[in-house]
Design brief:
This is Lipoprotein. It comes from Actinocorallia longicatena. The chain has one domain. 63% of the residues lie in helices and 0% in strands. It has eight helices and no strands. It starts with a helix and ends in an 8-residue tail after the last helix. The N terminus is likely disordered.
């Protein structure tokens, strides 16, 4: 059961730990070549939504104390929600990409972050109010929530969304601050 819980929570955990951004100055990487506006913007995005976010702490799930297990999962979902909110705020702070063709994708990315955060919040609220006294009641509560989170299990975060633009994908690949972003 512990593996199922952790797998379900890991599937909905997005953000800094998944984006792979390393931080950096967004400059030319020492090449002597001036970075274009898309590369500079991509570096800012990686710094804003990647490297500076706190790493998520997986909850310790005590297989003998189901009430504490539920509380740990609710706390973890709260951490995910906070990180998603921070990512959305930081991405808004960076602003839209410099190329107009990617602006709708940027807007869609912001909406997807907000929608995911809303689903995480709903899941946490529902789980928090569930009456859990034993393994069966915890399993029942978690199984009921799986339907909410299933559609978000493959979400890789805003950088992956923004890479759908060929121009931005190239910019992320060229931005020193984004090395390691998949």
């Amino acid at each position: 059961m512990r593996r199922w819980i952790l797998a379900a929570l890991t599937a909905c955990a997005v953000g800094g730990s998944l984006t792979g951004c390393s931080g950096g100055d967004g400059g030319d990487g020492g090449s002597g070549t001036k970075a274009g506006p898309e590369v500079t913007w991509a570096s800012s995005v990686c710094s804003a939504v990647g490297g500076k976010n706190a790493q998520l702490q997986m909850p310790a799930v005590d297989s003998k104390n189901y009430v504490k297990a539920k509380e740990g999962i609710v706390t973890f979902l709260g951490q995910i929600s906070t990180q998603l909110s921070t990512m959305e705020t930081n991405l808004r702070g960076v602003g839209a990409p410099p190329n107009a063709e990617a602006k709708p994708l940027y807007d869609t990315t912001l909406t997807r972050i907000a929608t995911t955060r809303t689903a995480v919040d709903k899941t946490a609220t529902t789980l928090k109010s569930a009456k859990v006294t034993d393994k069966v009641s915890l399993t029942t509560a978690l199984t009921g929530l799986a339907g909410i989170m299933t559609k978000y299990q493959d979400y890789q975060g805003p950088i992956a969304d923004l890479k759908a633009s060929p121009t931005l994908s190239t910019a992320f690949a060229s931005a020193p601050a984004c090395s390691g972003v998949s």
